[in-house]
Every structure is written in C-alpha cells, then in structure tokens.
Amino acid sequence: MAVTQAIPITRHPYADGSYKKMLIDGKWIDAASGKRFETHNPATGELLATVAEGDAEDINRAVAAARRAFEGPWSKVKPYERQALLLKLADLVEKNFEELSQLDTLDMGAPISRTRGNKLRVLGMLRYYAGQATALHGENRSASSAPSFHGTARLVPASGRSALPLLPVARWSLNLRRKRR
Description:
Blueprint: E1 19-20, E2 22-24, E3 27-29, E4 36-40, E5 47-52, H1 56-71, H2 79-95, H3 97-108, H4 112-117, H5 119-132
Helix pairs in contact: 2-5
C-alpha cells in the first residue's frame, strides 16, 4: 500500500495574500480595466494573492512596449550580450530554483517533487536558447534531445491563467507542443 507523506513548505512572503500588479514596459501597473482576481492554493484554499486581471487592452500595451524595446535598445544589443543576459537569467533561476519550485507548487498545485524534478529541463532550455543568440544558422532545430518535442514554447501556465506574476520563463510547464507524426 502506498503511503503519502506531507512535505512542509514554509509560506513564501510573496504569497502573502496581498495585491500584485502586472509588469508592462518596466512598470508595475494595474489592469486597464481595474479588474482583479484572487488566486488560492489549490491544496488548502488559502488566499495566495489578489492579481491584476489583464485583458485585450493590457495585451496591446504589453505588445506595444515589447515592440518599442525590440525596435529601440534591444535591437542594438549584440548577440554575445544577449547570450550573457540569458545565461545570467539561467544562473539566477538555478540559484533560486527551490524558492521558485515552492511558489509554482503553491500556485498550481503540482506535487513539489514534480516541480523540483524539472530543474535540469528548465535550466537546459534556458541555456540552449542563450546559446542560440550566437549560433543562428537559418535552420530550425529541436529544443530538446527528445524527438517528440520541437522548439515552440508558449509562455503561459498550464492553467492558461497566471495566478502569480512570476518570471514567465521560470514556469516549469512551458506547454511544449508535441509534434504530430
């Protein structure tokens, strides 16, 4: 008979039930509509945070900000500098992986062993894409050594709705689409 054991997780200060804004154009802002939603720990029902609920107007603001950055300063960043930035991100994710795993588990309810178990895959993907900044050759490459995956990643949580506004790339469930054979 299988026995389950609860693994104690200390409540993270970020998941304190307070209001969390959206990050758009380098600024923490409210949703244009003013809407908010509560996110709860699926295991306990405890309130983790109240979050700005973005909609089409917020998406348009985020896309416009990304376009400005792409056409502005980001387009002038050299490939090796982009690579260095992405490698720094991977190092930060690795350094803080336990904390990010706990937040992800609180947010989406996956077993902590699952979020912890994705460490090598997450870090591998971040470092793979960092390497692509200096290694683009005009061809499509697999993002994984597993032949059943290709390199298209959607930066949304498995639930389709981000409850805690964490770094999107830190989301372990990157929703890789399987190749159709």
